[in-house]
């Protein structure tokens, strides 16, 4: 009987130890460490949100990993990353994989309106490009459109917009949005395709430097031209407006969900606005004083 008694005590002690160890591993919104993955196109706004959150919660660490959008989604499904930033609609197969692997309802947390821009060197005579012209260029052997890489958010979004597979499109590649801008002057007959967030930060030194090198083409659709202004992003009239959103595999209210909640509420949305993007959840309000 004594042996059985001591055996039960030993088992209880081991179970308690494991329980404590497991508790240590579970993070909270204000303590812990997670990996957040985002496409290079959204690097600026993602890092700004993560830096502000960790500054307010000094016992947290959000490691921002820059990775192509499709690869980031795979890492989320394989639980190598806690949170990812997405810009395109998931396919039915991807949503099914999310439901199966993550065992959570697919629920995007929308936080900003970004856009895909078509840009040329500053001295280019081009001022605009139509939807039909873009569609034709995507099918042309001339490969005049320069994207920042395969599996990138920009390429995926444009392919989805024209109901095509990325593998069916014709295009050139220069890796990285910033590299596309900086090298575009060497290819005066080509058109770069970059994210708005790459150049949107109003007072960022790098963003200002990049803006000085290029001209953003207006997009012509049904006889009307649209630029990528915040007003046109807000009402979604710019044809290549896209909504950025977070996905997480976190099933409890931990650091991942705490960060997402912060990003979608007022303080996080102010940071999005300072990045030069359109906040998804707050809008400017005009108050008249009498």
TrEMBL record:
- Keywords, in A-Z order: Signal
Q: Which residues form the PBP domain?
A: 25-263
Q: Which PROSITE patterns match?
A: PROKAR_LIPOPROTEIN
What highest taxon heads this organism's lineage? Answer: Bacteria
PANTHER family for this protein: PERIPLASMIC PHOSPHATE BINDING COMPONENT OF PHOSPHATE ABC TRANSPORTER, PHOSPHATE-BINDING PROTEIN PSTS
- What protein name is recorded for this chain? Phosphate transport system substrate-binding protein
């Amino acid at each position: 009987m004594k042996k059985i008694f001591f055996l039960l005590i030993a088992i209880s002690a081991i179970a308690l130890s494991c329980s404590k160890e497991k508790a240590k591993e579970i993070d909270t919104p204000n303590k812990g460490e997670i990996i957040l993955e985002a496409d290079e196109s959204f690097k600026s706004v993602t890092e700004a949100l993560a830096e502000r959150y960790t500054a307010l919660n000094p016992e947290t660490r959000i490691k921002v990993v820059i990775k192509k959008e499709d690869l980031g989604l795979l890492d989320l499904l394989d639980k190598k990353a806690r949170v990812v930033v997405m810009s395109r609609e998931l396919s039915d197969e991807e949503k099914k994989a999310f439901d199966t692997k993550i065992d959570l309802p697919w629920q995007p947390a929308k936080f900003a309106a970004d856009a895909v821009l078509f840009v040329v060197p500053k001295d280019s005579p081009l001022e605009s490009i139509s939807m039909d012209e873009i569609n034709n260029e995507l099918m042309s052997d001339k490969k005049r459109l320069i994207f920042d890489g395969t599996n990138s958010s920009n390429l995926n979004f444009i392919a989805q917009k024209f109901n095509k597979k990325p593998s069916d499109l014709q295009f050139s590649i220069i890796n990285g949005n910033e590299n596309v801008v900086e090298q575009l002057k060497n290819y005066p007959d080509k058109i770069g395709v970059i994210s708005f967030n790459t150049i949107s930060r109003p007072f960022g030194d790098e963003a200002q430097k990049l803006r000085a090198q290029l001209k953003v083409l207006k997009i012509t659709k049904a006889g009307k031209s649209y630029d990528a202004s915040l007003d046109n992003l807000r009402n979604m009239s710019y044809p290549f407006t896209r909504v950025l959103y977070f996905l997480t595999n976190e099933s409890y209210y931990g650091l991942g969900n705490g960060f997402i909640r912060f990003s979608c509420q007022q303080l996080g949305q102010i940071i999005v606005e300072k990045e030069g993007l359109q906040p998804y959840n707050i809008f400017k309000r005009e108050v008249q004083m009498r």
